[in-house]
Amino acid sequence: MCEQLQTIRQQLNERFYDREEEIEALLIALLSRQHLLFIGPAGTGKSVLSSMLGSIVEGSHCFQHLLTPFSTPEELFGVLSLKDLEQGIYKRNVTNMLPEAHFAFIDEIFKANSAILNSLLTLINERIYYNNGFPIASPLLTMVGSSNEYIEEGEGLEALFDRFLLRYEVNYIREEEAFIAMLKDERKKGISKITLDALTEHQQRTDKVAISDTIFKVVAKIRQALHDEGIRPSDRRFKQSLSILKAKAYLDGRTEVIREDLTILTNILWETIEQKPLTEQIINEVAFDTVEAFIHRTANEFEMIILTARNAMLQKSPFAKSELSQLLLQGKTLFVEVQNMSRQIPSRPELHSLKTEMHKQLLRITSDVIGF
């Protein structure tokens, strides 16, 4: 159904190390016609990955720009027409500028000043640019914004931040093996292309992906659970998130949204960075049943312990052995939790599989501590 897009995803994953989530988000944004925000330090590949939009979709116009505090509207929306200005008409020449773009990448988007902000908000939300007071329909499908930092309260950028439905933190490569592979990689990997017409067809198919009443009820429960904790994403954000769920299902080759797709809501439903961890916890607990939520939480915690232990062994600091022993204790505690849950619910084979894998990893850490 979407083998073409899956091929592109695979090729992008081969080219960009440790960026599977961001690549999936980029393709989901394309399918759902939604906007995407990448936040993270410089040098993490946000710009390079985002700029792939123009090269992937043939027949499209992609606009790219880096904003600074001194950027002017002319840089995004075009210069004023001198001929019209002589007649008192305040009209811009938008040819090949942002209002005519199918896709856009705006780096350091939170540097947008008040002279740019209002036009940018209308363009992102309504796909309309007002030129001399007259509305011009924009073909804009997806805008990707990036920033090195989050907005601060009082900057007047809350509305701009809210316009981006998908929000992802982009960090440096986490695993040593992937980092070394990136350093060694000197190949120039090609990326397959897709025509604008083909993308439109994929978008139309995405719109037809089914959402069952069960999923709608789970989304309603997530909303209530978030409200109970004082996290109140707008009804508009919930409504728009349905297009993301459909796009995620379609990209994975399915015609119906399933519970696992709901995990992407963790990149949508929080309002401030402080709410992000609790939002993720609530979504995972509500989206999955008790056992699935337990497995999801425990597996993630155990994975972090393993990664931290590997880093400790590589650093070989004077306190490394003590740190490894502490990590081993934390890992054993989690293992006991899984063991007890498996005894209580022996009918769930995934608990047994998790227990077996954790035991193998713990034996390796134990061996490393002894031989350190």
Automatic annotation (TrEMBL):
Signal sequence residues: none
Residues of the MoxR domain: 4-184
EC number in record: 3.6.3.-
GO molecular function: ATP binding; hydrolase activity
Gene3D superfamilies in the record: P-loop containing nucleotide triphosphate hydrolases (3.40.50.300)
UniProtKB keywords: Hydrolase
Taxonomy, superkingdom: Bacteria
Ranges for domain ATPase RavA-like AAA lid: 215-283
Name of the protein this chain belongs to: ATPase ravA
The species this protein was found in: Solibacillus isronensis B3W22
